[in-house]
Amino acid sequence: xxxxxxxxxxxxxxxxxxxxxFSPSNSPGIPPYPAPKACRLVAARAMPWPHVLTVxxxxxxxxxxxxxxxxTCAALxxxxxxxxxxxxxxxxxxxxxxxxxxxxxEQLKSILSDMSVDVVKTGMLPSAGVVRVLCESLRKFPVKAxxxxxxxxxxxxxxLSGPSTLAKYRDELFSMADIVTPNVKEASKLxxxxxxxxxxxxxxxxxxxxxxxxxxxxxxxxxxxxxSDAIDVFFDxxxxxxxxxxxxxxxxxxxxxxxxxxxxxxxxxxxxxMLHAVQAAKKFLESALYHSKDLVIGNGLQGPFDHLFRLKSxxxxxxxxxxxxxxxxxxxxxxxxxxxxxxGRSIKDAVKAAIEGGATIVQLREKxxxxxxxxEAAKLPVVAIGGINATNASSVMELxxxxxxxxxxxxxxxxxxxxxxxxxxxxxxxRSQGGADDPELRAFLVEADAAKAExxxxxxxxxxxxxxxxxxxxxxxVAGGGxxxxxxxxxxxxxxxxxxxxxxxxxxPAPAAxxxxxxxxxxxxxxxxxxxxxxxxxxxxxxxxxxxxxAVAGDAPTDEQLxxxxxxxxxxxxxxALQQATLLLSAAGEEQREVAEVExxxxxxxxxxxxxxxxxxxxxEGIDDIxxxxxxxxxxVGAAGAELAEARRxxxxxxxxxxxxxxxxxxxxxxxxAVAVVVALVLARRGGGGQQQxxxxxxxVAGGLARSVxxxxx
Length: 714
Prior knowledge:
Blueprint: H1 8-14, E1 51-59, H2 65-75, E2 79-88, E3 96-98, H3 101-112, E4 119-122, H4 128-140, E5 145-148, H5 163-173, E6 179-180, H6 184-190, H7 199-210, E7 216-220, E8 229-235, E9 240-246, H8 256-269, H9 274-291, H10 314-319, E10 332-334, H11 337-343, H12 347-356, E11 361-363, H13 371-377, H14 393-400, E12 409-410, H15 416-427, H16 439-472, H17 482-507, H18 510-553, H19 559-571, H20 574-686, H21 689-713
Helix pairs in contact: 1-12, 2-8, 3-4, 4-5, 6-7, 8-9, 15-16, 16-17, 16-18, 17-18, 19-20, 20-21
């Protein structure tokens, strides 16, 4: 047995039946601190529920804010209530609606006065007034711990808090906090925008922030440029601890800060120490990012991740909750080839000793043994053949649990050299010690090793295609479909291998059927990886096509234009596809030019309308002048009417005088006309040219006088 030096009988006596032998470093579902010693509980006893209150903003996309806090606490077995300080319309910070301070105070009072809150976790506190209200409420209603996530700069780099809020954090809130968890950008802002480029800078920042009054400081370096690891610096006032973890390459990082702080709060509410809570939170976040690295939700640069991934694992459901049921406890035992040789026992003897000691699951970790020896020694179903690690342990357990009758047997870790050596051993016909040489089993093992080799080749091809995709994503390439064609071929190969393994499982000997099932599970995982990469390639290809179209045509393409462009690339070779794409873009250019002509016509029409409007304005001013003149004329008409009435009164008296004068004038005129006619006749008879002309003139004067007399009479 691993890490044991006693005989089998003594060993069995030393293994308590209520002990869980999982290493936190290898099992993502187990907390990294010891489980409570008292495991037997009375079913009817009411157990306290760890309670976390989150005071933060609401994220409509559910990736950050109170939504991330609630999901994190639920995944860790803690109850989470909430006080909303702002309602955001993400993706942009511009869409933020602040909740009034008075209503924030009402929310705090309603929860803290009624419910037993263990830990308060803060997120987005958008104003100095909200920070003040929170501090006053916590003085009235103290809690066990306060976790402050100073959300001043979002993961995407947006500024969320002003200078007055920043000062309120430093002067009042930090002194009440048990831990403050700024990222590198927030730590820099807290300290006056100092540069933080190295781990040493992070240490100095943690020490400086500690002087503001919190009991612990965690400076998060996940977004520090140039670092291959995700390094966080924890400081308790005495000692610096660097927490290093794997940097997960994924776009799904929205809400990482909220999740980490909420996980710390949940673990503190469950009774963990601060350092253990921080370690558990970092491990939880790393596992969540890993299980969500290929998740696709939304089209933004940052996506959310799956907070509830652990609920899908039987390991978590059976081993990580603090409220234990004795019937759910199990013992996981691992054999060791060196110890077996030392005590002179076989694999069978080791498994028997483990069963007698109370083990419920036995892992055979015999690196020096052959595959045939495992299968021939197994009297119980073999769950898997291949590497068993933290990533695939849950799927192995899912295969094991339905077949459990007290014990499940799994194989050792195999690398490529082990597989190659085992294949050579099988071909050479080596027999296992004490085992029967079953031809059917031998044939199965040979076929299984060939399937492993093919699976390894497919994985290598997938890695090559993934690297090629990452390299190609740095350039714009629309027409080339080599990657997609290779992925389709790889997916077809994986499916054929899966069908082949299914056939092997149906006709394999009983002990080997489960080995085939384990290989099928690995092929299913490979198929899922291929499909995920295929989706990434398609999405990147579509984005590249849209950018190319925009660069050439000057406008974003419609979905129909984009589909036509991609269809031309799919149905043609690279050269002809480029020609097709060029034709499509040329057509698009013609359409753009026609649109430009229409736009110019519209501009000219608009100018004409403007001129007409100016003319109408001028005419309006003229009409106003006419109206003024008409009004003045109306006044003149009124005055003229009065004068006319006066004239009528005078007319009666003057009419008689005028008649007399006219009569006299007419008589005189008639006399003059008669005289003029006589004189003209006399001159005309004399016959002289000059005299005739004088006679004509006299007659003209007489005619004019006659017309004047006529007008006067009328």
